[in-house]
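User: Some background: our group keeps a shared notebook of sequences we're curious about, and every so often someone picks one and asks for a predicted structure to add to the entry. Today it's my turn. The entry only has the sequence so far, pasted here. Could you supply the structure so I can complete it?
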Amino acid sequence: LDLDPAIFAIQRTSQDGRSTVLCLQNVSSAERQIRLPEGAVPANDLLTGTKVSGSVIRLLPYQVLWLHKDA
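Assistant: Of course. Here's the predicted structure to add to the notebook entry:
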């Protein structure tokens, strides 16, 4: 996914299409604000349990999010 040059992003979908994980990592030393792909939210961060509902999120330097969404 091409969200931002400083964000490493991979999206994986289960074979049955019912579950998606969007993995995001800010690989820079600066805070980044990005717009998530359409349909990515609402989701839960698998690493922290935090619910994400906004389509624009802020990633702190080197922060990692694994956003899980059930269809």
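Suggested note for the entry: The beta strands are 7-13, 19-26, 32-35, 43-45, 51-52, 56-59, 64-70. The mean pLDDT is 94.
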